[in-house]
Amino acid sequence: MRHWSEDSWDAQQGGPIVRPYALTQGRTTPSRPDIELISMVSTVRLPGRTTRLQPEQLRALALCRTPTAVVEVAAHLALPVCVVKILLGDLLDHELIALSSPDASAATDVRFLQAVIDGIRRL
Amino acid sequence: MASADSRTVPSPDAATGKIVVAGGFGVGKTTMVASVSEIAPLRTEELITATSAGVDDLAGIEGKSTTTVAMDFGRITISRDMVVYLFGTPGQNRFWFMWDDLSRGALGAVVLVDARRLDVSFAAVDFFEHRGIPFVVAVNCFDGRQVARVDEIATALDLPPGTPTLLCDARDRESVKEVLLTLLHHVLKAATA
């Protein structure tokens, strides 16, 4: 008979449910409401030795040295978006990242739209 | 597709926008995104619970009634100060609330249609029409053959008057650029009306 500790914890088996819940330490909503799919995240400083972070948060910090949208962070970490928003919320609370959220009125912003049109023409 | 090395790095406060590519299962949404994206489309997942009305909430996650829904997206860096993301909607209709989240704040939407299976795109047309989100209908001609006329499709889909409808090849970059430009001009017209 195998001892229980011999069974490796299988992330796949644990599924997409257990792991995220553990990562967020049971939290179900981000500390900030303005973290959107296409909010731009950029690392502003590296954590001090006493700052306790999850490995996924350290990976997010490394990734966002180049400004990166929330949804891209989620894709690279292979974690659900709602989980990533919670992890990023912590980084914001620690003032390790800066967040730039999209302008809700972009769809009616003529200058923005014209710039996008010009940009797509140049592709 | 531009290589990652040549990418313009966006500034930390770059303005971002999103365009939604919707349509039924298997009409070519991810193909369309891939045709203009500077990166190979990325896939991300969202967790949803059976009782959840929204996706910004992990409540109930400890229960068993949780599922994941995948969405594919691509990126176009317009300039250092501007990045546009293209999102393919999950194909299944039961993920409507996911569409809500994706569409909030979107510049507009492309409803991608397979002329041989118009029925799978009715729901997408209804969705954007009811929410007042500007959209265009792009008929994906998979094999280069035109199987129906644009005006026939517009009638069959009962499109609101003035909805731009055009043929496209989702695999072709220039064709997809034309679809996006048609959409953006339509959005611009609505913005200045």
Quick synopsis:
The complex is a heterodimer of chains A (about 120) and B (about 190). In chain A, about 45% of the residues lie in helices and about 10% in strands.
Largest interface: A-B, 51 and 55 residues
Distance between the termini of chain B: 35 Å
Head-to-tail CA distance between termini of chain A: 62 Å
How many DSSP-defined strands of chain B?
Answer: 7
Fraction in beta strands of chain B: 25-35%
Low-confidence residue ranges of chain B: 51-57
Beta fraction of chain A: 5-15%
- Count the domains of chain B: 1
What is the CATH architecture term of chain B?
Answer: 3-Layer(aba) Sandwich
- How many beta-strand elements of chain A? 3
General shape of chain B: globular
Fraction in helix of chain A:
40-55%
Radius of gyration of chain B: 17 Å
User: How does the major sheet of chain A shape up?
Assistant: 3 strands, antiparallel
**Helical/strand content category of chain A:** mainly alpha
Main β sheet profile of chain B: 7 strands, mixed
Number of helices of chain B: 5
Given the structure, what is the number of helices of chain A? Answer: 5
Characteristic key phrases:
heterodimer; A: 123 residues; three-stranded antiparallel beta sheet; 5 helices; 3 strands; B: 193 residues; alpha/beta; Rossmann fold; seven-stranded mixed beta sheet
Would you kindly provide a written description of the structure presented here, covering whatever features stand out?
The complex is a heterodimer of chains A (123) and B (193). Chain A is mainly α and 123 residues long. Chain A has one domain (14-122). In chain A, 46% of the residues lie in helices and 8% in strands. Chain A has five helices and three strands. Chain A has helices spanning 11-23, 55-63, 70-77, 81-93, 110-122; strands at 40-43, 68-69, 97-100. Chain A has a three-stranded antiparallel beta sheet with strand order 2-1-3. Chain A is elongated. Chain B has 193 residues and is an alpha/beta fold. Chain B has one domain: Rossmann fold (3-Layer(aba) Sandwich). Chain B is built from five helices and seven strands, in the order βαβββαβαβαβα. Chain B has helices at residues 29-36, 96-103, 122-131, 150-156, 173-192; strands at 15-22, 42-49, 66-79, 82-88, 108-113, 135-140, 165-168. A seven-stranded mixed beta sheet of chain B has the order 2-3-4-1-5-6-7, sandwiched between helices. In chain B, helix 1 crosses helix 5 (173-192). Chain B is globular. Chain B starts with 14 loop residues before the first strand and ends with a helix. Mean pLDDT of chain B is 85; it is low at 51-57. The chains are: A mainly alpha (123), B alpha/beta (193). At the A-B interface, helix 1, helix 3, helix 4 and helix 5 of A face strand 1, strand 2, strand 3, strand 4 and helix 5 of B.
